[in-house]
């Protein structure tokens, strides 16, 4: 079976999938008891009375109800949290080198390190931004986040995300989105993996409107892939870890909670290959805004303003003549947290100690930033009569309406590049007024 055959496609579609034929009840002739002695359970991602087009819900047909687990007790995690008020947000520009490899054995949950964030689960808006550094499978433990929808962005090493609605295999330059409350565990086919996690406390991620772009472009709905039903019928002594209102909890569970034999609905995990993004953008003059690179958006209550925009800067052709091609200097009402997944970002120098794969940067609201000197000089003197292929790159950005607070542990990390401001201090004065 091909990899594509293991997935259902189409963003936000109503899917129906069963690991055992005949499991799903059909219409008014559905029996009082579910086939094969299963339990029916609704998995609601939205309020019951939201508009039909906004509804996210699925019906799960499982071996045991999700309620069959023990009492939750608080679980202290040294590096994964939502304490975004530890340090006042500042207008300083920040950049961090990749975090060092872990010295001990860490699975996906133990390897989470909170980098920054804003808002809160309690107010249902904002974002938590984390890195994960994992070198062992999740064994005998399962996780769900009651606070947020999770976006997982691998940077190195594959992930196999086994959820209660099926399996997502995710590699670098792909993403996985896990609905709020969906239970899962993570295996590492390559033995280790590192990457980024965005916790979306606000409205569900959705495709951005295309506006004047028209009917085609950016991320295509057909390229979003949802898992087919797969289940585990396993008994044992396990633990279920929950994140609730910013804190972690754990409870004993005597079976795998990934025991859904069939499901139908649209509240489900999915993956997307960033390399399938349909890039838009001819730079005739000025410069298109980065919203032309938006993959998914979580809208806020204010029309046109995002709680979170997830944007990427993928391979693309720059073809317009007589114009500055790299990213331009700007000050933005939104705040930007950026990471490099692969290759070189065209507006910043790469290599060790620069903006290398695994590195991150933060430019808060109205903090001026743009290309470093080398990128500016290269863009200013490029032969724009020839097209330029930006081929070896993949960067991403979480852009938010609120200021982003870096955590104390990140500001005190040796990965913080103390000299980041210097990349602009050596920009020369070229002003030559007419005589």
Strand content: 35-45%
Give a quick account of the main beta sheet: strands, pairing sense, barrel closure: 9 strands, antiparallel
CATH architect. name of the largest domain: Sandwich
Q: Compute the number of helices.
A: 3
Structure, described:
This protein has 435 residues and is mainly β. It has two domains: 4-88 and 99-274, Jelly Rolls (Sandwich); 277-425, Jelly Rolls, CATH 2.60.120.10. It is built from three helices and 28 strands. The protein has helices at 373-380, 408-411, 422-425, and strands spanning 7-9, 15-18, 39-44, 57-62, 73-74, 94-96, 112-120, 125-134, 141-145, 149-156, 159-163, 166-170, 174-178, 184-187, 193-200, 224-227, 235-244, 247-255, 260-265, 270-273, 294-299, 306-313, 316-318, 335-343, 360-363, 388-390, 393-400, 405-406. The strands form six sheets. Strands 1-16-20-13-10-15-8-7-28 form a nine-stranded antiparallel β-sheet. It is globular, with a radius of gyration of 23 Å. The mean pLDDT is 93.
Summarize the structure.
By secondary structure, this protein is mostly beta strands.
